[in-house]
Design brief:
Layout (H helix, E strand, L loop, with lengths): L34 E9 L2 E9 L8 E4 L4 E5 L1 E5 L2 E7 L4 E9 L2 E8 L2 E10 L6 E10 L2 E10 L5 E6 L11 H12 L3 E5 L16 H17 L3 E11 L2 H10 L7 E4 L6 H15 L4 H20 L6 H9 L4 H4 L12 H8 L2 H6 L5 E6 L7 H14 L5 E6 L25 H12 L17
Parallel strand pairs: 12-13, 12-14, 14-15, 15-16, 16-17
Antiparallel strand pairs: 1-2, 1-9, 2-3, 3-4, 5-6, 6-7, 7-8, 8-9, 10-11, 11-13
Helix pairs in contact: 2-3, 4-5, 5-6, 5-8
Length: 458
């Protein structure tokens, strides 16, 4: 969860999917493709679930749920040739493809995901994920105009609602992992607001120069929008955050009495400066560098941050960065070009000065927070302790804080080096816990049931 701007390098979270190629067309009668298909890929005694939803015989608009990594409503470009269906999604990171051959109510094919290939079998099912409706919206925070999408459950309301804030990754509302969060909440019976972060998509403003306070006020502008909409329970609007959003969501709740609950995943209990250093140190260790290199990179980063936070020049800093730029480890350190350390915007300085503990002490509403013990971007165990202490100090007794020892920053199971082939998968139980917590804390949220619906990992 490296914060942002040229000083922090690229986002640490990405959804990377890849699949195989379309088999040749065969001479056979066209089969009916419309409907909800549930499939299981199997290899070496292991299985991995996904589903496909095809709205019409012309399969444009097909979506897939990658159930075992909790990715929902992922949009694909789909084509067909008689009874062969080809789904493809291109991103900067990879090409995702699902190929299947339909035989009546059955489907068979090949899955290649994250570089792993396995055959799959499946069937058309009557039970499908809950139907949803979408509405594009525009709202504002001062001079900044924010463009978003409200994802509604269908049927009789009114519904509780949630504003989904951003992590440090891509800020467009169509980013698959972010959009998936909105779909997840809407399927559970909440109206979800997702939006283009300021400076991304159709939103104005500049995220790189924004403070955590600016971003929290953007989320609160979303809360104000939801309060004005029909079929919304205005007293049941929460804010969620993943990664960097784990700073934004509690700050928003601390600044407004209109936030009814807070949900955070992989939230940092330490400030952006210390968190960024923790993140980069682990990146260097994963790159095979020893503690002397880690210490040198951290010293340089602290010098940059000390300058940024205080505004006091460090005359020797450009030369020190220039010397480091020739080292093999410089790229992994995400340190800036020596020419790019002079200018620091007020928003960037305020960002670095943000301290999460005072905000958490003021959060008086129910809180659910989840971490992975194998998180290399956030010190998960200490963050849990820090946030628990802050909530207790502020008198908040309704908080559920859970650490999954084998999970990473994305709440996915950390792969063992001795077993590298397995498909990526979410830590068991996390999504069910989230659904059950919503059922208990938010009026009218749809119950998840003991084992959970098929679209949610157990």
């Amino acid at each position: 969860m490296r914060p942002r701007s040229l000083w922090w390098g690229p986002a640490t979270l990405a959804l990377t999917l890849s699949f195989g190629t379309l088999p040749p067309a065969i001479a056979a009668p066209a089969e009916r493709l419309t409907g909800h298909w549930e499939a299981v890929a199997r290899k070496d005694g292991r299985s991995w679930r996904f589903s496909i939803d095809i709205p019409g015989e012309k399969p444009q608009g097909a979506t897939a749920d990658l159930v075992d990594i909790a990715a929902y409503g992922v949009e694909f470009r789909a084509t067909r040739r008689k009874n062969v269906i080809h789904l493809e999604r291109k991103t900067a990171a990879a090409i995702t493809v699902i190929d299947g051959k339909v035989h009546g109510a059955r489907i068979t094919g090949r899955l290649i995901f994250s570089g792993i290939e396995a055959p799959f079998t499946g069937a058309r099912r009557d039970a499908a994920p809950p139907a949803l409706a979408e509405e594009d919206v525009v709202f504002g925070n001062g001079a900044v105009t924010l463009a978003g999408t409200v994802i509604h459950p269908t049927g009789e309301g009114p519904y509780p609602a949630i504003v989904c804030t951003h992590g440090s990754g891509p800020g467009d509302r169509q980013f698959a992992a972010y959009r998936s969060e909105g779909i997840f909440y809407a399927r559970l019976g909440l109206t979800a607001l997702i939006y283009d972060r300021r400076g991304s998509g159709k939103s104005t403003g500049d995220a790189a120069g924004a403070s955590i306070e600016d971003l929290a006020d953007d989320a609160l502008a979303g809360v104000e929008l939801l309060k004005t909409m029909k079929n919304i329970q205005s007293q049941e609007i929460g804010v969620s955050g993943i990664s960097q959003g784990g700073w934004i969501a509690p700050l928003a709740a601390s600044r407004s009495k209109d936030v009814a609950f807070v949900i955070v995943l992989s939230a940092s209990g330490i400030n952006p400066m210390e968190q960024s250093i923790f993140d980069v140190e682990n990146a260097l260790r994963r790159g095979g560098y020893g503690e002397s290199v880690v210490a040198e990179a951290s010293r340089l980063r602290r010098r940059i941050y000390d300058f940024a936070r205080s505004g006091v020049p460090d005359p020797g800093l450009p030369a020190a960065l220039e010397a480091a730029r020739g080292e093999a480890w410089f790229r992994l350190s995400a340190l800036p070009d020596p020419q790019n350390v002079a200018a620091v915007s007020p928003g960037e300085r305020q960002f670095l000065l943000f301290e999460p503990v005072p905000a958490w002490k003021k959060v008086a509403v129910p809180v659910l927070a989840l971490w992975g013990g194998g998180d290399a971007s956030v010190p998960a165990s200490s963050s849990r302790e820090i946030i628990e202490g802050a909530l207790a100090a502020g008198g908040n007794r309704d908080h559920t804080l859970v650490l999954y020892p084998t999970a990473d920053h994305s709440l996915r199971i950390v792969r063992e080096k001795s077993d590298p082939w397995d498909f990526p998968r979410s830590v068991p139980g996390a999504r069910l816990l989230l659904a059950e917590w919503l059922r208990e804390h938010v009026r009218a949220a749809r119950p998840a049931g003991v084992s959970g619906p098929e679209w949610m990992p157990s």
